[in-house]
Amino acid sequence: MKHTTLPLVAKALGEKYDIQVQISGDQAYTNGRIINLPSLPDSKEAALLARGYIDHESAHIRFTDFSVKSSTSMLKCLTNILEDIRIEKMMGAKYPGCRSNLKDLAEHLKQQGSFTPSLQDPPQTLLSWLCARGRLTLNQDFNDILAMTSSTVNGFLGNGYKRLLDLTERIPNLVSTRDSQSMAEEILRLIRDEKQQQEQERKRQQDQKTKTTCSSDGSKPDGSSIDQEEDNQTSGTDQQSGKPKQDTDDSSPDGDSTGTAACKDSQSQAAANPSPSVPESGSGGQLDGNPEALQEMLDCDPGGFGDVGEILKHELITEGETVGNRGGVLLPPEASLRTFPIDIHETRRHTALLRARLSGLIQASRLRRRHARRTGSKIDNRVVHRLALNDTRLFLHQEEKTEVNTAIMILVDRSGSMQHQKIEVASKTAYVVAEALDSIPGCFAAVAAFPVGNSDGVAPLVRFGERPCSSKFGMSAGGGTPLAQALYWAGVELLKREEPRKILLSVTDGEPDDLRTTKRAIRWLLEQGIEPMGLGICEESVRTIFPTYGVVYSVEELPPALFGMLQDKLTK
Q1: Contact 329, 463 (CB under 8 A)
Q2: 384 and 461 share a domain?
């Protein structure tokens, strides 16, 4: 795919998925109806990211239930990862080419390290493991990520790891966003249950260790020694017999036995040194687990780790920053415009005059010239007499004339500077040109107006293949003059056409918001093989913008001005 066709690909994908795609600004986002891409450089990586973002977000718009909300950050991350896998599977089933795009995208992001966790970060490790586990079901090569994270996740969960494996076997069976969230909730419940079991098991082992230590040094778990208990029993017997108890050398001055002190020391060491965070092998070859890591999984906010949409947003914004002041292709959204009928009685005469001149021009260019050549299969009877002059040019030859076969997009500037007389002249001009061209065989015209409202939007008035209707050409003026964005939009529309010749006629006063960006758009059009032309309305500033231009101050001046601009273009 050529990098310069990215706007065409973006728009084509949007139409394929019935989603509106625009390229503007420096942010990547979607609002459920429109997918916006930032201005991007002409690079293979930018094209891959943009295409993947459109595929991925279109899948969300088509298949995700946005009413499903998550109560915690970890639940949201788990749900998003599972939902990404589910919708990509559904999108790939509906659009096989999309499956290949998303597979290439996932491989690119993996190579960039987007799915590689810090193994010292339990939440990231779990999410990375889940990404790999799920994406393997999409036939994406994530075996290396799974191998990297499996032993660590196993160490965290201990006996619960087998339950997690069984649970995630059901990933291919997810059919809704609520299914994805339900599985995420099951994973969190498993983690919570396993944490409690590990803590109970740890406490049981610590109690058992304390008992074992006390038994070996002659002390009891309650801190008293066996000797002391025997002394107490003896003392009780002596007191009953009326004999005084004698001091022994085995007791310490404060009344504690040596065994008791040892037991307390062992208890304090156990409290100060709980089981290590690194998993260790327990009895029966099972892993002891790590309840601290599991608690971190439950409490931590891992951000957007593993969320393809969030990863792509950051990647696209970074790519857009490399464009800098050079800018990129701006593809504004399509919008609707409220129009009203124009008075066609005045324009009929001008339309007829322009149509007659253009038709005559085209007809003359289609006439096949006949002349004689020295080779051929048919003799021209008109030149047989040349034999007497030793001239062998006797064979008839007719030159084949190419058809017009041209697509023309007419852009009408309805910015604030076009108010009053200008917008009236511009709208009538567009109608006259569209109607005149519509009658010429092999010539296909479309008309659009910009801007719409306070946005950079473009409103199609007549699409290719439609007949011009006067009720669509009456319009008011207002807003800025985002001429560059409109030129890009029109260029993409023309690139979708099969006609070999493509012409873009801009009806404007030639005062764009950003002259530098507009000139860059003109260069882009020329690179794509599109011929840009400017028809100035009551202004001559189009001379500094368009390589081919004309100026009119009234509709009466339109036929000769436009004829002069088109005569060479339509007959080459």
Answers
A1: no
A2: no
Instruction: Quote the CA–CA distance of 471 and 461 in Å, as a whole number.
Output: 10
Helices H, strands E: what count in the chain? 17, 11
* Together in a domain, 441 and 533: yes
Find out whether 516 and 509 touch, Cβ atoms under 8 Å.
no
Residue 283 belongs to some domain of the structure: no
Tokens of 239: 């007191």
Q: What is the pLDDT along the chain (572 residues), one digit of tens a residue?
A: 343 457 777 777 877 788 888 887 788 888 887 888 888 877 788 889 999 999 999 999 999 999 999 999 999 999 999 999 999 999 999 988 889 989 999 999 999 999 999 999 999 999 999 999 999 999 999 999 999 999 999 999 998 999 999 999 999 999 999 999 999 999 999 999 999 999 998 888 888 888 877 666 655 555 555 455 445 544 444 444 444 444 444 444 344 444 444 444 444 443 444 433 334 333 333 446 899 999 999 998 888 899 999 999 999 988 888 765 445 566 777 888 888 888 877 777 777 877 777 776 665 555 455 667 778 778 877 777 777 777 787 777 666 555 668 899 999 999 988 988 889 889 988 998 898 888 888 889 999 999 987 777 899 999 999 999 989 999 999 989 999 989 999 998 998 888 888 999 999 987 898 898 899 899 989 988 999 999 999 888 899 999 999 999 888 888 888 888 877 666 55
21 contacts 34 by C-beta, under 8 angstroms: yes
Q: What is the DSSP letter of 467?
A: P
In this structure, the answer to whether residues 355 and 391 fall within a common structural domain is no
Q: Domain for residue 69, yes or no?
A: yes
Asked, for residue 253, whether it belongs to a domain, the answer is no
Cα(246)–Cα(9) distance, integer angstroms: 101
Residue 487's domain is classified under what CATH number?
Answer: 3.40.50.410
Q: Which domain holds residue 385?
A: 368-398
242 within domain boundaries: no
- Residues 58, 340 contacting (CB under 8 angstroms): no
Helix (H) or strand (E) holding 60: helix 44-63
Q: How many domains does the chain have?
A: 3
Task: Return the closest-CA partner of residue 348 out of 537, 559, 82, 76.
Answer: 559
383 and 523 inside one domain: no
Q: Does 52 lie in the same domain as 189?
A: yes
Q: Tokens 């939440």 correspond to what residue?
A: 123
Residue 442 has which token pair?
Answer: 């092999």
Both tokens assigned to 465 = 């293949």
Residues 447 and 554 in one domain: yes
Please name the amino acid found at residue 1. M
Q: Beta strand pairing status for 370-373 and 34-37? A: unpaired
Q: Which of 354, 444, 370 is nearest to 403 (CA)?
A: 444
Distance, in Å, from the CA atom of 238 to the CA atom of 298, rounded to the nearest integer, reads: 61
* Dihedral (CA of 331, 565, 407, 440) sign: positive
* 372 and 437 within one domain: no
Please give the C-alpha separations between residue 511 and each of 36, 455, 545, in angstroms, as whole numbers. Answer: 26, 17, 10
Beta strands in 318-383 (DSSP E): 370-373
Do 174 and 319 sit in the same domain of this protein? yes
d(CA 209, CA 214): 9
**Tokens at 37, concatenated:** 């891409």
